[in-house]
Amino acid sequence: MSIKNSIIFFPLLVLLLLSGCAGSAPQRRGGDYRELQWPALPTPPRITWVKEIRDFEDAGISKGFWQRAIELLTGEPDQRIGKPYGVYVDQKERIFIADVGLALVHIMDPDKKSYTVIGGGLRTPIAVTGDDRDNIYISDAGTGVVYRYALSGGKLQRFNVTALDRPTGLAFNANNRFIYVSDTASHQIVVYDLAGNERYRIGGRGTGAGQFNYPTDLFVDASGRLYVTDALNSRIQIFTANGHFLKQFGRAGDTSGSFARPKGVAVDSDGHIYVCDALFDAVQIFNDNGRVLLDFGSHGSNPGQFWMPAGIFIGKGDLIYVADSYNRRLQVFRYLRVDDPQTGAPLPAPGESK
């Protein structure tokens, strides 16, 4: 890519990933929001609101006496989330947040009551994922590099051997142990083994099946299928673990089931597909055939509302983590399965109608 084209493209990438009106972060609000649910009563709930996370204390990590004393003397402020984009939660329930506003990655470990950050060298961290060797991977759209960081104490190292134009979305496939990277500027998904060697590429620019127009967010489900947010084609594309096209759904529009500014994509344990839309300020849920089943969220700063939702991740227990970018927080929801005692009317299974 030429220098001239890079200068033109980077503002477009910023608009694509973080477009919206910036503003000051809202304050925490009082009240009990634990009964927030979708659909609204009296319909049995399928999605419930759990909590919001603005800093490590919201994740259940408290400061010790000496840490508080040092901060009192040094004037060091609390490390709050700045402008989150990507979110990932591993099997140990550690929370990783790619914070493009602060140019770092937050690591919150509620089990060990620890909080750390990865910064120093990151310019525009967009996505974060992890492998089965206790490494995490960070895409940096500003440097064109995917970094690997060993959680056992290693340093930030370059992962990708081949050059990337603007890496954004990331996903790890535990079945073939490949790392998938959205190279948004080249309109391709680049696939690497864990040694950082490129194995193959998926797609190219276009509107046909298996082609992309600025792909961004990625997700790999339990079966190994790859989900791609094809942003400017206003659709989600689904591939096999080996990169073969399976299906697609979505269209541009402002009605239910269509996309205006699709971003994060994720899949729950029943195979329902969740897509964040930054213009709608909502998350839409689809079945495997692309039929919209439910949406939740609206514009605002209260619990259950969004201001530019970006990345999404679904972890253990069907907890749904949404990066609420301009509200400077994560919001956590829960999908209630068929056998959950709180609901007797779950979302239709994939392939069924509403």
Describe the 3D structure:
By secondary structure, this protein is mainly beta. It has helices spanning 3-18, 65-74; strands at residues 37-38, 47-53, 84-89, 95-99, 104-109, 114-118, 125-130, 135-140, 145-150, 157-158, 167-173, 178-183, 188-192, 198-202, 215-220, 226-230, 235-239, 245-249, 262-267, 273-277, 282-286, 292-296, 309-314, 319-324, 329-335. The chain has a five-stranded antiparallel sheet with strand order 1-2-25-24-23, with no helix packed on it. Strands 3-4-5-6 form a four-stranded antiparallel sheet, with no helix packed on it. A four-stranded antiparallel sheet has the order 7-8-9-10, with no helix packed on it. It is globular. Residues 1-10, 20-30 and 349-354 have low confidence and may be disordered.
Short description:
This protein is mostly beta strands.
